[in-house]
Amino acid sequence: MAAPADPPPASPTRVVVSDGPGRTEALGADVARTLRPGDVVLLSGEVGAGKTTFVRGAARELGHVGRVTSPTFTIVNRYEDGRVPISHLDLYRLGESGGLDAEDPSLLADELGPDRVAFVEWPEAAGHDSLGPIAARVTLRHAGGDAREIEISR
């Protein structure tokens, strides 16, 4: 008798519907459990889709205890108090000003280092190739009210 076939590998992409910010944070925490220093997570979605909420859950899982806010106007927020340093980048304004090519090339170098985990909102403004090895891609979409459709690709 032949041995049973191995089950097919799990899909590297999953889509989850979040019913509110708490669930979105929990999904961020779930992704963070597998992250290591040097990993980059890309977050895409419309304004208000929950990108920073997702990062908040991930940052908590990585040991950050302070506030997590959108770095839209500062471009980057650093959280150094957890088990691993975190860079939370929002490149939205770079897209308005001509992208990363219009900026100092070293702008992101310290934020995407091998000693930290980086979460990058609006990565389209930089071009994915310039961000280093990608651990996960997360796309958030409005799904009515507080609901969000969240696609996570690894």
CA distance, first residue to last residue: 36 Å
**What about the largest sheet?**
7 strands, mixed
The CATH fourth-level homologous superfamily = P-loop containing nucleotide triphosphate hydrolases
Q: What portion of residues belong to β-strands?
A: 25-35%
Q: Gyration radius, to the nearest Å?
A: 16 Å
Kindly describe this structure:
The chain is α/β, with parallel strands linked by helices and 154 residues long. It has a single domain (13-153), classed as P-loop containing nucleotide triphosphate hydrolases (Rossmann fold), CATH 3.40.50. The protein is built from 3 helices and 7 strands; from the N terminus they run E-H-E-H-E-E-H-E-E-E. It has helices at 21-32, 51-61, 92-96, and strands at 13-18, 40-45, 76-79, 86-90, 117-121, 134-142, 148-153. The protein has a 7-stranded mixed sheet, with helices on one face. Helix 1 (21-32) crosses helix 2 (51-61). The longest helix has 12 residues, at 21-32. It is globular.
Topology:
Layout: E1 13-18, H1 21-32, E2 40-45, H2 51-61, E3 76-79, E4 86-90, H3 92-96, E5 117-121, E6 134-142, E7 148-153
Parallel strand pairs: 2-5, 2-6, 4-5
Antiparallel strand pairs: 1-7, 3-4, 6-7
Structural features:
globular, 154 residues, alpha/beta, seven-stranded mixed beta sheet
Summarize the structure.
By secondary structure, the chain is an alpha/beta fold. It has three helices and seven strands, in the order E-H-E-H-E-E-H-E-E-E.
